[in-house]
Amino acid sequence: MRVTQSFARENENLGIFRRLSTAYRKAWMKAVTVNNFVSFSVDNIRAVVDSALYFVGLLVIGYPAVSLGSILAMSNYSSRFWQPIINIASLYNNFVNAVAYLERIFETMDEPVDVKDAEDAYEMPDIKGEVEYRDVTFAYEEGKNILENVSFTVKPGESIALVGPTGAGKTTIVNLLSRFYDLTGGAVYIDGNDISKVTLHSLREKMGIMMQDSFIFSGTIEDNIRYGKLDATEEEIRAAAKTVCADEFIMGLENGYKTEMYEGGSQLSGGQRQLVSFARTLISDPKILILDEATSSIDAKTEKELQKGLQELLKGRTSFIIAHRLSTIKNCDKIMFISNKGITEAGTHDELMAKKGDYYKLCMAQK
Description:
This protein is elongated. It is an alpha/beta fold. The strands form 3 sheets. The chain has a 6-stranded mixed beta sheet, sandwiched between helices. A 4-stranded antiparallel beta sheet has the order 2-1-4-5, covered by helices on one side. It has 2 domains: 2-109, no CATH class; 131-366, 3-Layer(aba) Sandwich (Rossmann fold), CATH 3.40.50. Helix 2 (10-61) packs antiparallel against helix 3 and helix 7 crosses helix 9 (270-283). The protein contains 13 helices and 12 strands. Residues 1-97 form the ABC transmembrane type-1 domain. It is a multi-pass membrane protein. InterPro entries: AAA+_ATPase, ABC1_TM_dom, ABC1_TM_sf, ABC_transporter-like_ATP-bd, ABC_transporter-like_CS, P-loop_NTPase, Type_1_exporter. The chain crosses the membrane at residues 52-73. GO terms for molecular function: ABC-type transporter activity; ATP binding; ATP hydrolysis activity.
């Protein structure tokens, strides 16, 4: 709603809604018309039949050949005869509505799945966290490569920062690791396992992924954090929140961790939603951690406090960090500058600053 209002799109969106609702209204009116016509017809026919029964029974044949009880019984049988027909008309109305709902469901179910398990896919075994990209090429549209022949290796426990201009392919690199997309060429390995040959579930359960858009589900804050580990205890949940500096603001809410959230978490600020998402990622205890602009909505003071928890979070985990803030990436083991469909520079913060290349220019621009 806020996006619609900010771009003054009320009239255009209202037109779209009217077109969609008109089709539904026409189908609904057709069903109601049929239902009303059948009900009206049956009611009138039944009234005529009942009148005929009374007229013929009482006035034509007369008592005692036909008793009043016999006529009432026949009238009751007549009502029972017509009732199923009325029910069928009502069922038709419900059927038309159900068909409309089923069409939407089947449209979703029929959407092609771009990424799926190979026929001979196996479960990803326990991993240490070594990641290798080998001659990776990828294009969202055929013939328009975003990445070309990208190769690098990350040792277990290393933290890698990906920096570069918007649209260079930083997020694409980590999306390929999670198999949100399949490669156009080359391969990605985790501890020697080709990720295209392992099941998606076993691959992704080894990873903790935190994107810039932090989604909050309806339910308590506790439930939202527990989403990362369904059997987590209250103590584990609070410990995770403390590590990422979320405990203070959560305890300041009316019901603390039991505070109910609307879907999307509209009661929280953008930074608070990110902290909850951070705790959710931490509690899942992943071997490989992906942080895509994970601190973009957090104020400088909170981010400074969060750095301590972040260092704890990165310990012993292979991590990929995408960020524009220098404070978030300068302590990473390796920084890779992504540009021109590949990696143009790689090294530590000090090494890249000494080169005075693209990374140096980016840092100077921030200052």
